[in-house]
Amino acid sequence: MKSIIILGDGMADEPIEALGGKTPMQYADTPYMDKLAEIGVTGRMKTVADGFHPGSEVANMAVLGYDLPTVYEGRGVLEAASIGYDLKPGEMAMRCNLICVEGDILKNHSSGHITTEEADELIRFLNEQLGSDRVHFHTGVSYRHLLVVKGGNKRLDCTPPHDVPLHPFLPLMIKPEIPEAQETADLLNDLILKSQEILKDHPVNLRRIAVGKDPANSIWPWSPGYRPAMQTMQEMYGFKQGSVISAVDLI
């Protein structure tokens, strides 16, 4: 039997006054989704277990049938897999956003949706300036990249930058959840502050500022984890083949 899963990742929203108190989904013209609802069975189902933040990585893994308490290791490990990086034992992977800060404010999480070409130039520069035998940056797509730290402790309290636009960033920097993670938190916070110093005058950012675009003048690592023991979809369900179409590479 052939199956298709259509998941509206991030589609929920709040009512907007300018739309007459409707959400964007309520306001939008959606004839094909309406038809699917008309000929299908509708209802509600809780897919994300208690204790898990329903981000893209968590919600999609749950819908696909993974046991989150057993296999979930954060978004970073999925970013690593998506770009073909073979995460080694002892390595910690983190999602690493290129963000825009303005003064002490986290202006936006995407640096104005910087292009991959521009971002790659910045990531290579970060490796030249901040990379080491222990720390390495890997280019992903647009503002979404990968930071790998050897010997990092994943017990960290990190804030997803898309949750806190226009907030002061210093109170949101990485905190250890246990004393053993203090060194890792200090390392990552030092990388954040150093990245701001070296990125502010980079030619990529000067060009973006000159044409009225937000600069990518800081990194923001979050969602740490180690290499998970995950089965493939083929191993779980016996699928012979399948494919995924997604706007984000972590899926």
Calculate Rg over CA atoms.
20 Å
Give the ordered list of helices and strands: HHHHHEEHEEEEEHHEH
Question: What general form does the structure show?
Answer: globular
Number of helices: 9
- Look at the helices and sheets and give the structural class: alpha+beta
**Helix content, binned percent:** 25-40%
Determine the mean pLDDT. Answer: 92
Enzyme class: isomerase
EC number: 5.4.2.-
Pathway: Carbohydrate degradation
Organism: Parabacteroides johnsonii DSM 18315
How would you sum up this structure, described in words?
With 251 residues, the chain is of the alpha+beta class. It has a domain at 74-225. Helices cover 31% and strands 18% of the residues. It has helices at 24-27, 31-39, 56-63, 68-71, 75-82, 116-130, 182-199, 203-210, 233-237, and strands at 91-102, 105-108, 135-141, 144-150, 156-157, 167-168, 175-176, 218-225. The strands form two sheets. Strands 1, 2, 3, 4, 6 and 8 form a six-stranded antiparallel β-sheet that branches. The mean pLDDT is 92.
